[in-house]
Amino acid sequence: MNAIDGALCGRPKGHSMLKPADYVLLAAAFLSFVFSIYLWFSGWREEGLFVGLWVPSILAFGGFMRAALKKG
């Protein structure tokens, strides 16, 4: 990111939009996705589908918490 990008989005140079908690949630969603793929190709198809459904739930929870903390 250069100085122009930071000026356009209203952030000081070197600041990220993501906080450490966001990285934790993204990592949890990614690990859930990888685990569901592993289960699917290991023959545990129903379990893989179940674990795969966690991904949008984890991301939605993160979005909800971010919005709730921003408001309050």
The low-confidence parts are none
Proportion of helical residues: over 70%
Average per-residue pLDDT, rounded, comes to 87
SSE order, as H and E?
HHHH
Cα shape: elongated
N/C terminus separation: 30 Å
SSE class: mainly alpha
Number of helices: 4
Tally of separate domains? 1
| Rg for CA atoms | 17 Å
Number of strands: 0
Main beta sheet, described?
none
DSSP strand content: under 5%
Structure description:
The protein has helices spanning 3-9, 20-41, 45-52, 54-71. By secondary structure, the protein is mainly α. The chain has one domain. α2 (20-41) runs antiparallel to α3 (45-52) and α2 (20-41) packs antiparallel against α4 (54-71). It starts with a helix and ends with a helix. The model has no long low-confidence stretch (mean pLDDT 87).
Précis, in short:
The chain has 4 helices and no strands. The protein is mostly helical and 72 residues long. The protein is elongated.
Write the layout of secondary structure elements.
Blueprint: H1 3-9, H2 20-41, H3 45-52, H4 54-71
Helix pairs in contact: 2-3, 2-4
